[in-house]
Amino acid sequence: MIEGNIRKIYSGFEFCSGDFKISKESITIVYGDSGSGKTTFLNCIAGVEKDFEGEIHFEGDYSIGYVFQKNSLFPHLNVLKNLEFAVKRCQKIKYSLDEIVKALEIESLLHKRIHKLSGGEVQRVSIARSILSAADILLMDEPLSALHTKAKKEILDLILKINTEFKIPILMVTHSMEELSALCDEVIYMQRGEPLQVMNREEALRNLDPRGPINILRKEDVHSLKLNFIDKSTSDYLIHSNHIILAPDPTLKSNFAHYINCKIVEIIESDENVYLIKLEYLKSRPLYAKVLKSNFDFSIGQDVVALFGPESLMD
């Protein structure tokens, strides 16, 4: 557990976190627009930034690993020697070098020089070095921002693996809703000049995407209209409210693969052309859909089905 309160004043900008707590073993995403203080917050926790008011408390002795946005590996050393440097400097050995090399799948990179690595490979090695420094928590400052789509997906999967297999809590800065939705257990939301807000996964997905709510659907709650039901690595499906179609009966929309039986509980004015519909399914679990006003022919209390195709499910 990490908790505290931080206030940092720059020329023309004041960052004030308010009280915060970061849970053990979770992936906590620090999310917000550029200039909201995300990196400042991370640097204060890491000890990189020492000139601030307030205090930060760590539960027990805490060793921090920091994966920077830009490459911080030693360019004059190859991959293996970068990793060995971390091992030599740490006072307690938590993981063997061989164990981390295998887990992060970097065996083939060990004798390469840093300038020969791709962006994704640099981040794998940087993460490995941070873990080998006996980190009790990993801080990551936009580690995916410079990567192409395939490398991003690989590092996202790797971050989940590290958290799950090694039980290392992760505090990661991003301004990407896609990264947030793929990783978060908790979210620290920052707006310039405002105290941070701490949200759980469901609250963040429902409230932070400017396009509208992202729904979390449990696999066992989703019915299949076709045999090609898509299985995902996550225990939940994520689907944007824009991608749900409402109908009185599932057979009326046979081109959709999946559906959930729902009841309309609230009709909200989203904008001049769209209603945001709050639905309820099973034991009061909420679901949101957006419907054009020109196509709207529903009422509160009406039983409907929410339909969507496999292409709508978010990775």
Automatic annotation (TrEMBL):
The coiled-coil segments of this chain are none
Single GO term (MF): ATP binding
Sorted alphabetically, the keyword list is: ATP-binding, Nucleotide-binding, Transport
Entries under SUPFAM superfamilies matching the protein = P-loop containing nucleoside triphosphate hydrolases
Location of the ABC transporter domain: 1-217
Q: Organism's domain of life?
A: Bacteria
Q: Which Pfam family is an annotated match for this chain, by its short name?
A: ABC_tran
Question: Which InterPro entries does the record match to this protein?
Answer: AAA+_ATPase, ABC_SmlMolc_Importer, ABC_transporter-like_ATP-bd, P-loop_NTPase
Leader sequence residues: none
Stated name of the protein = Molybdenum transport ATP-binding protein ModC
What is the species of this protein?
A: Halobacteriovorax marinus (strain ATCC BAA-682 / DSM 15412 / SJ)
